[in-house]
Amino acid sequence: MEKYFIDKKESIKNQEIVERSISVNPTKEFGFSVIGPRRSGKTFFLYSLIKKFNLDDEDYLFINFEDDEIKSLKREDLVKCVQKHVEVYGKEPEYIFLDEIQNLERWQSFVYSLIEKKKYFVFLTGSSSKLLSKEIATQLRGRSLDVIVFPFSFKELLKVEGIEQKKLYSSVEEGKIKNLLKRYLTTGGFPQVVLKKIDNKTFSKEYRDVVLYKDLIERYRIGNVEVARFLLYSVLQSFAKEFSLNRIFNQLKGRMEVSIKTLYQYFSYLEEVFFSFCLRKFSFSLKKSLLTIPKVYVNDVGLVEDNIGRKLENLVFIELKKKELEKLVEIFYWKDQQKNEVDFVLKEGLKIKQLIQVTYASGRDEIEKREIKALIKASKELKCKDLLVITWDYEDEMKFGGRKIVCEPLWKWLI
Questions:
Q1: How far apart are alpha carbons 250 and 234 in whole angstroms?
Q2: Beta-carbon contacts of residue 352 (< 8 Å; ≥ 6 apart)
Q3: Contact 107, 126 (CB under 8 A)
Q4: How many structural domains does the chain have?
Q5: pTM of the predicted model, to two decimals?
């Protein structure tokens, strides 16, 4: 194990590491469960923390429980890892990074003992197919905090491309940012696509297959593969739209043996593994909201094709979803009986904080009247005056129905 420590740290130093724009306030009171979609860079996020905190070799312990050198060791040897670290470096580590923790037998008691000592900053990751990353927090009985890692955001992509964040940009810089945003909307932000320049279409096909076979079929022991595949592809085709499982059930009826209960179950699995997410229609009654037909979004815009307007909406959703997962806001969509619709309703406590429409518009005349009408109607009904239209390239303030509406380009909103 001693040689593993040294070799692993040399390997980490040789990796291409990009600092993520994910805030972490280390505490020794809790462990940190690093959660998020498959292939979003959870292991490399741990590497980035080593760089961010400027840790020397003796300051941290890093074990990936999928490494062959570790797999061959017995549990009684592995749980002595802190003691072995002291033998190598002459001091206890302050930071402990445990990657793919599910591969350690009875890992819960080991990790719990580390956290209980309150001597270390403890970070954990788990793989989707064997242990859902968010199950780590559940099994640690309230002794861990979540750190959510999604694929690279657009803001992070700018950093990768060497564009610094500032208040004002030149026309040339602005043009470059918009060009990168167009590329990002096509290829998305998965690290292998952004850093390794893997072809997005090749990556997306392989990613869909891995989610289907590893996350759904292997993990949940799904027997009806064709139904699971049909559901997954239906989600991809219906992104940023209302998604009725009853409609899917009617499409399958007579073609495949499936119950509506099974469909609901499979659909929940997709959300559990961070592949897709539901957005419920807003209602002042939580019960009524839960019974509405949800809209569905995917974890990265590179997984879906065509329809630039819906891609913009999906991208905005992902950024808002991160805030919801951090428990900063709750998000919904709004729709009335006349089919007037507002893309996003942001709720803080009992108060509606903001209403957002997303549109692929580059000028005032391109913004649909129905979008403004819906925004004004929702504003009056929900008693919210903070109204935002996220556009492609139009910036201004408008007045309608006695209400001010701010229009802001997507690239500015994202950074």
A1: 13
A2: 345, 346, 382, 383, 384
A3: no
A4: 2
A5: 0.93
